[in-house]
Design a protein that fits this description.
Largest sheet: 7 strands, mixed
Oligomer: single chain
Number of domains: 3
Structural class: alpha+beta
Shape: flat
Number of strands: 33
CATH topology of the largest domain: Beta-lactamase
CATH superfamily of the largest domain: DD-peptidase/beta-lactamase superfamily
CATH class of the largest domain: Alpha Beta
Radius of gyration: 40 Å
Length: about 725
């Protein structure tokens, strides 16, 4: 009995405990539901609602003529809230089939039946956000807005999210220099002009309130952005897309012809340093039957290599400037070989004679001559030579805006890898590293009479059509060498094209100054003491062919450099491989530019014979003569029709034709030389029916001069 009571008391105790526990849970539920409900609801909504960043429309990049180089095109994620309160059952059922059909016709990724099924399923399940298509272009979005249900505007359930996609209208042209920006998790990759001016181009992002729904999908809560984005500024560059097209095609043809690894070409304006074209092409693939080239790497800026013979200009300028050497300075080259510390330096071709002048040595690109000259004058003080090279700013980056500029290298006599061979090796372009753009800048300074200007790719920045920033020419050095040295350098460079290694260019329309270059390319992975040279064995070497120069030589407007890396068809000399690219660029730029042409009335005494004229009104003829600065005289009335008096050969003297008075008398005048406009005016006012054949001024007339006519007669005028 006592056991039974004990069990019952324990049972009651557990029962009471459970009742109290249940009551406390119920109490807490009531507190949360009624007292703290609003607070917890707000927290839940805050967890599922966020402000998302809306990217601004990135600014455009233009060439010098206003052609688009890069632009942002809008694309849209298109979704539908098919359960919107404004879409009732009757509207849905009457339009869903036609909507499905039109969606299938527009997107062509699903059948009409599949789209209809998707919409019905969303309607049945109560889904408020169903994605129909991503990356929809603006044109298709406008078409969507005309579809059944969607054409009701905000009440049609159509929901769009805009994204912007960067496009380059000219595709590969200058692609690497235009560049791109890739936003990554840890870092942002910035390339070319896009990277250099990312802050200006990107604008200011906006904000849009989004709600998280089933499936971790975020949908906009409102139709409008909470904070509207501000579009980026536009960048206007110095690149001329027409010249860029010429440079890229000329480079591509030569790369294909010579089966080369890669190459680059740059065209720069002499006075301003503006880059008009910059092409960088790299070979894709290993199968020689299907080689193609693309703009993958910016060799012109980002790769410093041993320049080869184009560096001889710097060496000769240094010694001419320091020691005032004449171009007739005699240099003994012997049989075209010289040895320093068991290293034999050779000329490619046997010398014409054992003694060359400095000018002729440069023209034939003698390695022996330049090495012996530099060793003769600087062997006791190599630092003097290095300091002179550094005064040409060859040891420093140019500091251009584009990211990725390579570090140049000019060795110092105190450095660990300086040897007895270094001084002669540097003299003809080895044991130093220079980018193509740096080499071009040096040659541009000579074309610019010694003034070195910094290359630039930018002209101005505009925002909403208003200029907010302009870029001007930046001078690196006012005078890198004496004017007398510049004069000598120009004579040497022009001699290369006229009588030396560059004479194969065969440009007859204008003179060119320039230098060829052929450099062996050092191979990676060759260890000291291995018995192999860094450049490979004879017959197994890679070469870099180059040509750099300016045109026209008498008044330089442009400098250009072309570099072809690893041509593999047996020809690797700069004049034969890179020279044709330079020639094509120079000739096409020269023939298509007005900068090379002088105005016909530039000199006041240029006109020795008065030009021919057509018959026209006296006031019009006098106005044209005045605008062309031509001497003219006339005693006719303002509205009279006149022609030039051919007896006066040096002055434009006008005489009256009496056309109108003859027509009033019913007589056909001599209409020869009259413009079609004036002929129609005169003849039709007199009742004649005029038929015109051709264009220009009147050459022949069907009714002869002096013949009488009646109103309604027909006359045919043959124009010149």
């Amino acid at each position: 009995m006592e056991n039974k009571k004990d069990i019952l008391s324990r049972t009651y105790l557990v029962y009471i405990f459970l009742c109290v526990f249940a009551i406390s849970i119920l109490y807490k539920i009531c507190i949360i539901q009624f007292k703290e409900g609003a607070e917890w609801k707000a927290k839940a909504e805050a967890f599922n609602t966020q402000l998302h960043e809306i990217q601004a429309v990135r600014g455009n990049i233009f060439d010098i003529n206003g052609n688009l180089l890069a632009t942002s095109l809008p694309y849209y994620e298109v979704a539908v809230d098919i359960n919107a309160p404004s879409i009732d059952k009757k509207l849905f059922e009457s339009k869903v089939d036609s909507l499905g059909y039109l969606l299938a016709e527009l997107f062509k990724d699903k059948s009409a039946k599949q789209y209809t099924k998707l919409l019905r399923k969303a309607r049945k399940s109560g889904d408020r956000y169903v994605v129909l298509k991503r990356n929809v272009p603006y044109k298709d979005l406008q078409t969507l807005k005309t579809f059944p249900i969607f054409k009701r505007g905000k009440r049609g359930g159509l929901v769009t999210l805009q994204t912007n996609k960067r496009e380059r209208p000219f595709k590969m042209l200058a692609a690497r220099s235009i560049g791109y920006v890739q936003y990554q998790q840890d870092d942002t990759l910035k390339v070319g002009l896009e990277g250099a001016y990312d802050t200006l181009l990107m604008g200011v992002s906006g904000q849009r309130l989004m709600q998280k729904i089933a499936g971790d999908v975020w949908r906009p809560i409102n139709d409008e952005n909470e904070v509207e984005p501000k579009d980026g500024s536009d960048l206007y560059t110095t690149i001329d897309i027409n010249i860029q097209d010429v440079a890229e095609n000329a480079l591509l043809k030569t790369l294909l012809k010579n089966n080369a690894s890669h190459g680059c070409a740059i065209l720069m304006e002499v006075k301003t340093g503006e880059i008009k074209a910059i092409a960088n092409l790299t070979r894709n693939g290993k199968d020689s039957s299907s080689y193609s080239y693309s703009e993958n790497l910016n060799y012109a800026i980002g790769y410093a290599t041993e320049p080869g013979s184009t560096f001889k200009l710097a060496s000769y300028m240094a010694v001419m400037d320091d020691y005032n050497l004449s171009l007739e300075e005699k240099i003994t080259v012997g049989n075209g070989e010289v040895t320093y510390y068991n290293k034999t330096i050779k000329d490619h071709d046997a010398p014409e004679t054992s003694v060359l002048t400095l000018k002729r040595a440069f023209e034939v690109s003698s390695n022996v001559a330049v090495a012996k000259t530099i060793v003769k004058y600087y062997s006791k003080n190599p630092q003097q030579y290095i300091n002179k090279l550094k005064s040409f700013h060859l040891n420093q980056k140019l500091g251009i805006a584009l990211p990725g500029e390579a570090n140049p290298l000019i060795k110092e006599p105190k450095s660990k890898d300086w040897s007895g061979l270094t001084l002669p090796q540097i003299s003809y372009g080895y044991e130093s590293l220079i980018t193509p753009l740096q080499t071009l800048t040096l040659y541009n300074a000579i074309a610019n009479d010694g003034k070195m200007v910094k290359p630039r790719f930018e002209r101005e920045v505009k925002r909403n059509g208003i200029t907010v920033k302009t870029f001007s020419t930046e001078v690196i050095a006012e005078q890198i060498v004496k004017p007398s040295t510049v004069k000598k350098a120009k004579e040497m460079l022009e001699g290369v094209v006229e009588h030396g290694t560059g004479k194969g260019l065969n440009i007859t329309a204008f003179k060119v100054g320039g230098k060829t270059g052929t450099a062996q390319i050092a191979k990676t992975g060759v260890k000291r003491g291995s018995g192999k040279t860094a450049y490979g064995d004879e017959g197994d070497r890679n070469y870099q062919a180059s040509f750099v120069g300016y045109f026209p030589a008498d008044k330089p407007l442009y400098t250009c450099i072309v570099i072809i890396n690893s041509p593999s068809n047996g020809i690797y000399y700069g004049g034969l491989v890179a020279g044709p690219v330079f020639k094509e660029i120079a000739e096409k730029v020269y023939s298509s530019s007005l900068d090379f042409l002088e105005p016909i009335n530039y000199k006041p005494t240029l006109l020795t014979k008065a030009p021919e004229t057509i018959k026209s009104k006296n006031n019009e003829m006098l106005a044209v003569s005045k605008s062309l600065n031509l001497k003219s005289k006339s005693s006719s009335s303002e509205d009279a029709y006149v022609s030039r008096n051919i007896k006066d050969s040096t002055t434009i003297s006008f005489q009256t034709n009496n056309l109108e008075s003859q027509l009033k008398k019913g007589i056909i005048p001599n209409l020869n030389g009259l413009s079609a406009k004036d002929a129609l005016f005169l003849l039709e006012n007199c009742g004649l029916h005029v038929k015109l054949l051709g264009i220009g001024s009147v050459k022949k007339q069907s009714l002869e001069a002096g013949q009488k006519f009646n109103k309604g007669d027909k006359i045919t005028l043959i124009l010149s």
